[in-house]
Amino acid sequence: MPLENQDQADVAIPDQDLILLRRRLHDAATRLCRGPLTLHLEDIVQTALLRVREALLRGDVERSVPASYLSRAAFSALVDEVRRQRRRREVPVEEVRDVPLPRHHPGDPERAGGDADIRRAIRACLATLVPPRRLAVTLHLQGHSGREAARLLAWAEKRVNNLIYRGLGDLRRCLASKGFAP
Amino acid sequence: MNESTDRDARLRSAFDGPPGPDERRDDCPPADAIWRARSGDLDATARRVLIDHTAACAECAEAWRVAGDLGAGEGLAAARPDRRAWLRTAGLAAALLLALGLVVWRQSRGRLQGMDEYRDGAALAIRTLTPEDRPQPRSGLSLRWTPGPAGTTYDVSLTTEELLPVARARDLAEPRFDVPAAATGRLPAGATLVWRVVARLPDGSLVTSPAFVVRLE
After folding, report:
1. Are residues A48 and A83 in the same domain?
2. Partner residue opposite B52 with nearest CB, options A68, A131, A171
């Protein structure tokens, strides 16, 4: 990334917000950019920041808006950029050799090699659940509490907790039938 | 940590992973729709449609978590439950279009220079021709949409607001689905239904519509 572009981005966003935004974007990008994309993490963060700057200049995002609006704009730019990079598949094959290893699971070596299979199995099993259970269980797997899930789904918390309980039972039975017992 | 909690954590950990090359989809909602759904800023039906997408799409599930990391939905825990959301059908269509945002996304794609080359092959935008602003007859419900190029075929799925299947059709040659009366006969008066179209273009590419809404009399 040319230095002049970085300077322009720094000028467009107030310093304090920029520092916070850059830090949060970097953390978010670290999560989104795994495998070969890790090599492009800094570029992706910088491109996302530049896009926020462009949005500021165009007036799509008000300069005086709270940081949460900047986060929203940055999130969109980040996801767009990650999607674009993934689909362009510009990562040369030889770079893959030097890519940092994916997250491992200390003390659970069996899982390191089987995560992708388990994940596919979970998604396949989720698809078999009745939709209300699938929605509730999906949010549960995303780390939401029953209360948060209830609010996101606009259903009563008691109902959602029941859907999660029954849905997890369905999910585990399905996974067991596929040879997984997470 | 008890056994149940531990098993939950393992399930969550397994669910939380990067998408493999074979897990990518071409019908993902725009990033901003994910943010707004995560923030509780979309209509409940739109949120459910999007959450259902994350159940099947590792990439969007990951984006959902990252949106949370970046602060989306921070006020959600304090918000009141939206228990009457199903009654607010008047603005549902507009909200859904915003939610899945394909219209906005396609318009903004040209406006924002080089912002998104994603889905460049999808030149067709499917729009509903079934009115969303007035109730439709329970018997004789006809879903219609803008046609693709000659030779396009269509799959249609119609569900309840909670995404329970109501009717489905495959390989339709015309951009129209006459829903069997038996499929809608048991639904309550005023029921809101969600429908989507997947168009298979003559070149084999697929174009997925946003989720459309239809309300029964």
Report:
1. yes
2. A131
